[in-house]
Specification:
The protein is an alpha/beta fold. 41% of the residues lie in helices and 17% in strands. It has a single domain, classed as Rossmann fold (3-Layer(aba) Sandwich). The protein has a 4-stranded parallel β-sheet, sandwiched between helices. It is globular, with a radius of gyration of 14 Å. It starts with 6 loop residues before the first strand and ends in a 6-residue tail after the last helix.
């Protein structure tokens, strides 16, 4: 049996969190390796929070929000997309494999997509951690 991973998921309250809730209500199966943090909007996630998660021992981080053009706060997901793209590019500079960071757009009606995203993220992070035995300083 594989080691249980510590993956932090920052989920937008209006879409991704509701999608995760729908997956639970629908009793869809997905890995339990993710720890969900509900945020008002993906645009409010400071990239330093992502870095802090890795520095505190997270194996992976997922940021998930509303689909572009569908944000409850008009443009929050556009800000998130820009910030997180820069963050992903900076991770290698910090010595963290960028494949441990993921971003996904999941709406409130996409419970099945949420389950697929989590499964894919867990598989990707597990593969990276097994091949490199983690690159985060402990």
């Amino acid at each position: 049996m594989d080691k249980k991973l510590k993956i932090v998921g920052f989920l937008c309250n209006w879409c991704s969190y509701a999608g995760a809730d729908l997956a639970g209500i629908s009793r869809l199966q997905y890995p339990v390796d993710i720890r969900v943090i509900r945020v008002p909007c993906s645009g409010r996630i400071n990239p330093l929070l992502v870095l802090k998660c890795f520095l505190e021992g997270a194996d992976g981080v997922l940021v998930s929000g509303c689909h572009p053009g569908d944000c409850h706060y008009q443009e929050g997901n556009y800000y998130a997309r820009r910030r997180m793209l820069l963050m992903k590019n900076m991770l290698e500079y910090f010595g963290i494999d960028s494949r441990r960071f993921h971003m996904a757009w999941v709406s409130a009606a996409e419970g099945a997509k949420w389950a697929d995203v989590v499964g894919r993220v867990v598989d990707d992070v597990r593969a990276v951690c097994q091949t490199s035995e983690g690159t985060t300083p402990k």
